[in-house]
Amino acid sequence: MSPRLPSGALLLVLASLALASLLAALASGSISLSPAELLAALTGEPGLGREVVLELRLPRAFGAFAVGGLLALSGALMQVLLGNPLADPYVLGVSGGAAVGALLALLLGLAGLPVTAGAFLGALAATLLVFGLAGRGERSPTRLLLTGVVMAAGWGAVINLLLALAPDAPLRGMLFWLMGDLSLVGAPGAGLLVLGLGLLLTLPVAGDLNLLARGELQAGALGVSVNGLRLHLYLVASLLTAAAVTLGGSIGFIGLLVPHLLRLVAGSDHRLLLPASVLAGGALLTAADTLARTALAPQQLPVGVLTALLGVPVFLHLLARGTR
Asked: Whole-model pTM?
């Protein structure tokens, strides 16, 4: 499990890409800013650029980074938890469960923390259902994947039912949010806080994750408390997914693509993979959101549409490769 690239070099490259994506997000939009104008805006020089950057683009850029990091970290954990390299919150229906929980809270007229709590409970329920149903009998990656896909379809049906019952006034906003929308990210601090908490809760058990990835029996024989570790992963992955869905809606394939690409480059040591997933996932979604804002400006596209257009062919390629 030794990394193929030096860990320090890889993290430095990913941190540079993350910084570049954030700067590009701050400089791009209906009003493009030169490097000098961006620097002046960030240092507090009065003007239109300062208002655009600090009040509009900066919260959205940090929100995109937080959501991307949350989804990538959650995907890396779920792939170990379910023993399936094609697992991620979107494909396995965990994002759908979180969306159902959040929509139920919204339909009840709730806002803020209750919406996040509903998303967390929905994500936790979806994770438990997938693992419980696919874990009966002989567990295989194919069975886990098919169970997740079926559960995702079921959550999608529930979402459609809730949308059909929703009042007309908030319906458009709910639909746009479900497609993946970062335009309403006002205070990304909570998402960044959950992201940092997720790393703090998972990095200390990264060595145990390496052992669990080799198999439950081998991990147990080497002293890993498999049941306790699985419960830990259930809760952390569900919390990460719930925070991501609450901030940005249902955004797919980040949790699938990022850990896979990193494993090809750096190996499967979770001591490196987890922080690298946060940086790469944040950078990727920040860049995708910038493209969604600027491709057809002034009209903005849901960022979930772009991640799906990228993720679907890659997912099919990985599935065909795994079958071979």
From this structure: 0.86
